[in-house]
User: Fold these one by one.
Assistant:
Number 1:
Amino acid sequence: MIRKVSGTQILSSSVRKAFLGGHGVYTPLVLFVLKGARLVILSSLLIILVVPTFPFAVPTRTNTDLRTGMYWSLSGINTYAATGTGTYEGTLREENSWTETFEIERVEGQTIRIKRVTSGSWVVTLSGWFERWWGNDDRDGSYSNAYHYEIDRPTGRYITGVSEWYKNKPSWFIVDPGRIGSGGQSFSQYWWDEEGKAKETFYRVSEKRASIKDIEVTVWEASYSGATIGNWEFIKGKYQTGTESDSLLFDMDFGFVIGRSGKGTYTYHAASGTISETFERESSFQDSNAWVVASFDAEPRTVAVTVDGKAHSANELPKSFLWTSGSSHTFNVEATVSGNSGVRYVFLQWSDGTKAPSRTLTSSHGETYKAIYTTQYELQVASQRGDPQGSGWYDKGSSVTFSVTTPLTVEGFMGTLGGKHVFDHWSGDSTATTASASVTMDGPKTVRAEWRADNSMPYMIIFGIVIAIVVMLTVLLLVRRRRARSPVSSYMSPLPISAAPPPPPPPGPTMMPPAQRFCMSCGVPLPASMRFCNRCGARQ
């Protein structure tokens, strides 16, 4: 009679091997022993046990960074397939999808109590001999289990586990990050060799890039590849043999397992046929409250953000960081940042409303911190005179007024006569014709006041003076011309016309008459000795 384990009890060999290798329920493996056509059960043999050991005496990290309530979770899928020939003609394929969560329930000194909850579902498809062998047992199902462990942090060994078997054996899902990173071989597992014996095997430890909360970080990778056995034993002590690879990832902060992958191929050849099997598992990090993601950005995205002393340029934004929960960090931005010519950015606030550009905080939850800036443009008001007003920096989109004082007195002689400089119009980014105007700041602006000279008053005064001089000269010229045309008259007494002329002088010796004088103003004849004109009174 053929005997087997029900799928609802232990699922199948892929689930068993995966679970005992670190994923799912820790259920003792039952080996199938095929002798001719008879299958019997060998109970309580563990195939792959992930048991890290630390052979080197190296400094360790303390567990002060572990706190009650911390958790992390993984999810994955394991696939097992078997193919038979000859007597065992047929196929078997099983897929197991699962999630598991580890929670730190208590931290007392160096002792950590961890709760592990595993749940999942499985489905199997069969044909040929495998279908007959499986019979009427369930071909799909689900499960959920919870276990509690106490682990010594420095050594990573179980203090208590699911059973007494676990005592003093190393755990696989949490390690001391200081120890595992101490050298090339500082992590080991029990590996089943081709003779079916479990032997401690050291894994190679190296650095690798992996993702936690979608942030790429450096982690420890412990990996090994070698010969091992499969899940089928045909003759006692005679197993399927093959090769298998295994890789586990541990974060560098807490030493949590955050992923695992592996695959194997195994074959057994017998006279009546063969059974070949393949196994593949893949798990990845899902979530944890041990880390928070802090993201930084700027609006507009033209400024740098400095986080914990390191500047990240605008080209790097948005920039995200994975911080351990409860850690303290500083970040800041410049209050004013210069852009292109005539452009600058003035810090307004962070996206959470904080007004200070420099901050220090303790990380407790994921947050995006965006530095919000106001864009400002420069207005340059240029003028040779008139005390130009309005130059400066203004917010984008604002309306700004600028002006000059007009009119202004012209320097020098023309200014004394009333000459003025008068504003004419603006040039550049404004064509306004008023001395006070406005412009919308949609970019850097430059305006220049254009002036004209107003000399109408000086010209009028000069013209008036010239006319006055011309008139005076004309009058003088006319007077002189009149004098030149007047005839020489005989001497006349300044007495009134009605008075009788004086008697002629007595005859005397003959002599030349004296030169005749005339009044310089009215032209009447005057005696040579007279100093004032009897007619007009002008001094001679």
Number 2:
Amino acid sequence: MARKDSILRLHQRLIEKRNTLRKRFGTSDPGWQNAPQSGGDVGDAANHGSSRELTTQLAALENRELCQIERALQLIRDGRYGNCERCDHSIPIERLRAVPTTIMCVACQSELELTGGLAGDGEADWGNAMDLEGRMNPAEATLRDVEVDLHTQPQPLASPSLDVSMDSRMSGPRRFTATSGFLLAASISFALIAAGFYPTFAARQATDSSRPGDVEVLEAAGRQLSAVTTRLMPSVVKIRCRHASSRGGTVEETGSGVILRHPATGRLIVVTNAHVVGSAEPDSLQIHLHEGRVIQPKRISIDSASDVAVLEVSTTGLTPAQWGDSERLQIGNFVIAAGSPFDLSHSVSLGIISAKGRRSLKLGGGKVINQDFLQTDAAINPGNSGGPLVDVRGRVVGINTAIATTNGSGSGVAFSIPIRMVRRIVDDLLRFGRVRRAYLGVVLDPDFTTAEARSLKLSRQRGARVLNVSPGTPAALARLQINDVVTQFQQTRVVDFDHLIHLVSLEPIGNTVTLAVWRGGRRIEVRVSLTDRDLLTGK
């Protein structure tokens, strides 16, 4: 009810401001209503040009503000005001009071600003046109709008200045008419007022971190992260596993996992790492939920080649996390890692995506063949394995699996399995009980060197070199040859042999794919129909 009352008050403020702007414009083309028509000498033309430019700029800013107000009023009429247009999350009422025309939450606006896609949602106009008590201050709105808008243009930060210099044609004697005298006085007044504001503006730029606006942005970002983790935590679990040691006796290990709903079947599952579960039976594995309950899985499915495990559960009252899309991640995007490092349940850490497509990591004694890892600097330590990596909206984009370390603890270099790959593995495990991998039927060179590439007339070392072709395989039927170099798989450039193995193995069984092959100093294309590796090899 309090939020509804606040929106009603904001509605009234928006209407009052709209009416004020409409009266100020008076015409449908406010930018030129005071522009000189014709006549006058050179001095008049120069005065008119300079003043008209300023008048036009102010009118354009006010016109933009009016458009933003109309958009906000339309959202109120549609009953959608106060929700982010991109993610539909509720915008905090404090942000709406500060910027009544805003249509995005802080997270969405920051994302668009970083990618250069934000055309303006009214923040600059309203944020600078409000006084300390949140009331409109029309006298300051115009000048401050110009101040902010000019500074967004490419200008030196050290000495921002407002260009109100006269045209060079005004250096000689001038004949001033009444109109030109009025416009010149207006220009000088505007320059003096602006000169008073710009030292303050420059000081704010020099001490950017102390600006109240920045503090509010940071606080809002903190609230967004807190909201994300609050929603995520019920979906994060700690896994405690007991299994026999190679030296005899029993070993207890802990890891993490995340509750998800399988889209195809609607079943609730816990996704974790294969190395967390190991060879444990369901009755030797405990899943510790966020609210304190301890449950056991009814079935465990493992794929060591991708280090993914699926625990099927039938417990009610579970909260699944949301599937994300790892393909949309960009280097530098913020991510949150959640899990139970060092047995400290439900811990989170913040970082960024440091790199994508990491391969050739020595994991699981060389059994992990599907490698296309996300690299992050979010703090991941022993016990985080199997926990989720989520984006700033709380969507799962990866499953944390490994760290680069010299002392057993995290060092800012950690690796997560992309959720798109995880989803493919989960689908096969639940449908077939195993992961069906496509098979090409070649032996690839793991030590393909630059010298060997040059001997094959390649300009540089790239692709996967074929050392042998197995009889009766898809590669043999497609007539691949020894010393062929596969440089492209479908539309993806092949980096090395590990990359090709990964691409082939996750391609749907029965697909016919196009390979770009370098043979005898020229590029050719080969069509190959892939088959099931396990059926062909008799496993």
Number 3:
Amino acid sequence: MKTGLLVAAALVAAFLLVSGDERADPRTPPALPGEPPPFLGTAVVGGGGLTAAIDAYGDVVDLRVSGPGGRGLIDNPAERQAAGTVPADTGVVPWVSRRGGATRPLWTADSVDQRYRRGTNVVVTTARFGQARVRVVYAASRSRLACLVEADGVAGVEPRASRPPAERRLRCDDGVARATIRDAERSDRGWLQRAQPLGSAAPPWADELYERSLLVLHALTDRRSGAIVAGARDGWAYVWPRDAAAAALAFAAAGYRGEARRGVRFLLGLDLGAAARFYGDGEPVPGRGPQGDAGGWVAVAAQAVGLSPPPRLPWRNLPDYQEGEPGDYLGNTIAAGGAKTGLHRSESSRRLVRRLGDPGSGLDSAAAWAVKPFGIRPLYPAARATMLRLARRGGRFGITPGENWPGIDPWSAPTAWTAWSLAALGERRQALHLLADLRRAATPAGTLPERVDFGTGVPTSTTPLVWSHAFAILALRELWPGRTGLEGCQRRGDCLLGGLGGDDAGAAGHALAAVELPAAQGDDLVADDAGEADLRERPPLAADRDHRLAGGDDGEVAGVADAGGDDVAAVRVGVVGGGAGDDPDHLAACLGRRSRGGLHHAASAAADDGDAGFRQPATDPFSELPGLRALLDPAAADHSHLALAPHSSPRISPISSSAPALCSGSLRLPHFGLCTQEGQPDSQGHSAISRSASPSRRSNSS
């Protein structure tokens, strides 16, 4: 009896600990208008050794030694953040002494602003108290966190650590701190210099997002083991195979072959059938079983860097990237190369839905994976129609994971991976619109949250998220591949995934890739219908946050190879529409300003996304292959003869085609006109609202 009472008391105490009961811990301090709550990280500091997360107010809210997946030194559980019960002395908090007044933290300031020093993971948080100003600078070495404080108009600033282990790693306002910050700046900029740049036509905003995304991956990749964690936060400082594999693809695309190979080798050493997540030392994290896409993502990453893929793993009746109940899901099917992928169709047209055999389960953004990185060509038309429909229905800050997702808050990773695949299919305008959404969702420092509030864009979950930044890199390189991304890879003969612009590695493990499809004619596989061709059906861009989207001159767009740049049934991409002078939206003025013409709300679109385009009727790419047609027909019989070959034994049948070669750079796209750089205001333009940080029901740590 006593044991039972003790257990009950412990459970009640644990509930009160995170429930916000007045008798338990105090409430999380309120956020400033337009900012996330205190103690939710918004920036990451480090270079693969000691790793720290900094919130919008200059507080150190997560600190890990021995790499980004190492032991945590700060007690800041995600459950407390979700419940709003984080104590005010959590982590390392700078306290400001006002002349003649009490000490105050930065979340009581009149305003805060956070930026990185360009080309580094050195973060600077500036707070204003009336005319007084406080700046806190953080950087990390392999084993030390350094901070410098600059104060103007206040008596002093004292960073206070709540726990001795964190305090012992902190050096502030001395020679060691200054040297650490200088060394970190030099090291980060030197590392960034190794990156393959975007093409010369890339506007400044694209270069900035590209650099910040690379530096996020740099910070969250263990410099010794290659382990790539999802984020610098309790519950996210683990390795998810699909997240880390996407990061390895991004590293490879950007020219960091060593980082890519180390990341993949770490993944190949995991027991992928043991768990969904892994510690930085490779041990499984208890609590969640394997997920059905892990093997496929690791395989495509391995092939991209020239390593042998892992053995094929089961994928049916397992959870997918949404981390819910087991099932037969689209993402798992695509990643595993399941022969019934085409049966994931919607009720009324050839679009891809989440559950196998359940047309009512809603469109799934994982349809994009059929294009990039897995290259299942027969599904390109259905994937394209699915992505365009989801993109058109998205909000100002991106899209949700799927049509039947229970919430409305946009997620940055599906937004970015959809942009990547649409760009690969030649849907450049729509891909740019999604990147505009993504940039609106970014913090002022340029980091991408896992998700943001639908109405305000304020981060509500882990920031930055490796997965989102990895797909941002891949999308940007697809749009502006640069000389080394396409022409250079032809000279070197190592077009990995076509420089991440083709399908060789991704398609190699799929038997469907070996089918010789007839060469598409004109706009066959990318034709718009009347409703989809007009991007003005998207909700209007928000003036209140478009200041961060002011773009440079998009210039004459460099030659971009289509998604079918390999020798497997190459597809000729037809570009619909004329030049910038014919488009009243002018790409929403290069992603930065409201269009001149009136925008129509998505609800006004009634056309079926999968129908023929307005240029010419779309032909049926399956007309000569009735066996493949069954893949898109739920009433069809199970064609077991299309069972897949193992990933390790690709059999790709080359065919001849007059389409532009992957590395030729011969496919020209229309000139989208010029933009002027209008500059950016000093503060973030979020609406005035305070939010709690709450992990979604199916987010990484839930």
